[in-house]
Amino acid sequence: MNETEPSGLIDHHCHGVIRRDLDRTGFELLLTEAGSVGALGGSALDSQIGFAVRRWCAPLLDLPPHAEAEVYLERRAELGHAEVTARFLQAAGLDALCVDTGFEPEPLLSPQQLGEVAGASSYEIVRLEQVAEQTAPTTTAAGFADAVRDRLAQRAQTAVGFKSIAAYRHGLRLAGERPSDAEVRIAADDWLASANGDARTPLRLTHETLHRFLVWCAVELGLPVQFHVGYGDADVNLDRCDPLLLTDLLRAIEPTGVPVLLLHNYPFHRQAGFLAQVFANVFLDVGLATHNLGRGSRALIAEALELAPFGKFLYSSDAFGLPELYYLGAVLFRRGLAEFLDAGVAADEWTAADAARVARLIGSENAKRVYRLTPAARVTA
Predict the structure, then answer these.
(1) Quick one: which H or E segment has residue 315?
(2) 273 to 73, 326, 333: CA distances (angstroms)
């Protein structure tokens, strides 16, 4: 590893790992953002990410690079999920992980368990919509605002940030104004009334006013606020996920100084880079897309850095389910960033010392500064 391949990465946005063995179908489902895999579309392993797994992950299972998919999966099953998880998380070379605990379709490794396996500090990111959906059944529309504020304040005592998934529910066209309690009460009344029709259906917050209310609650607590942006699974309407739709809200938040983190961003990574340049408190990453683009991630990283200041770019994997994604995200990010920085040195655009310093900024120092990461904030339960 050279000086422009940052060691000790801080993965500022990721999820838990599956705690069971997987058959081929289960593995392929976690390798893609699609909701299903089948013969009609061929194998999910026949893709940029599939070839990247065979190239970079196979050696960690004691296989040669480019091992055939069947051989890879057989070896994975032979080792068992606990051993596979330990190998990939430890090889990712992480100093810390900031874990979104708001999506758990089945039991996953907790932030503390992830940190222990990876040999890294671990921190929690609280999903705003989940808190609202957990609070709603225990309160009324009139009491909703105060009840949510109280729960978020409690969670803020141990978390290092919040996350909004408004992109999945309403889209990113959110107004800048902080809603009044009266507006929140009316919106909560509408939402709860519409949700009470079928008790079997889980609550799903989709109201623009309530998404905006949650963001402002997080801002008032002073912790960084993450936004899902762009690429995701089939539940997202991509045309509503351009980060430029957040411009009015970003203008309103900027005077508070609270950091806003734009997650993923592909294919809107250039727009996100622009927002990071023009708003003092806006930051971005290209997590999730990095490992999904495989060898194409090198161009992705270079494009994201066309406008984004180097002090505004962070590393994330957005790994979920498969421990391979923690390792693969880290490997491809290190290689892509090093290629970008080394090319600048070769062209005499910046010095080798500058390149090494930027690698440290992007790999870990920006995240430490934004999230104010300290040992006291480490997850212990």
Answers:
(1) none
(2) 38, 24, 17
Contacts of 326 (CB under 8 A, 6+ apart): 11, 14, 17, 88, 89, 92, 94, 118, 317, 319
Contacts of 116 (CB under 8 A, 6+ apart): 122
DSSP β-bridge partners for residue 164:
227
In the chain, DSSP assigns E strands to 9-14, 94-100, 121-127, 161-164, 225-229, 260-264, 282-284
Query: Residue 68 is which amino acid?
Result: E
Half-sphere exposure of 263 (CA within 13 A, CB side): 26
User: Rounded distance, CA 250 to CA 244, Å?
Assistant: 9
Q: Where are the beta strands (DSSP E) in 188-281?
A: 225-229, 260-264
Q: What is the pLDDT of residues 311-347, one digit of tens each?
A: 999 999 999 999 999 999 999 999 999 999 999 999 9
Instruction: Identify whether the C-beta of residue 231 lies closer than 8 Å to the C-beta of residue 169.
Output: no
Whole-number Å distance between alpha carbons of 294 and 148: 40
d(CA 104, CA 26): 16
> pTM of the predicted model, to two decimals?
0.94
Q: Is the dihedral of CA 256, 261, 265, 271 positive or negative?
A: positive
Domain annotation for the chain: domains and CATH numbers: 9-19+93-377 (3.20.20.140), 22-79 (no CATH)
Angstrom distance (rounded) from CA 326 to CA 324: 6
User: What secondary structure letter does DSSP report for 179?
Assistant: P
Cis, peptide link before residue 64, omega less than 30° from 0? no
Q: What is the DSSP string of 36-90?
A: ---GGG--TTSSHHHHHIIIIIGGGGT--TT--HHHHHHHHHHH-HHHHHHHHHH
Residues 209, 244 contacting (CB under 8 angstroms): no
Rounded CA-CA distance 263/246 in Å is: 13
Q: Which two tokens stand for residue 43?
A: 């194998």
* Three-state secondary-structure class, residue 284: strand
Residues 238-266: tens digit of each pLDDT = 999 999 999 999 999 999 999 999 999 99
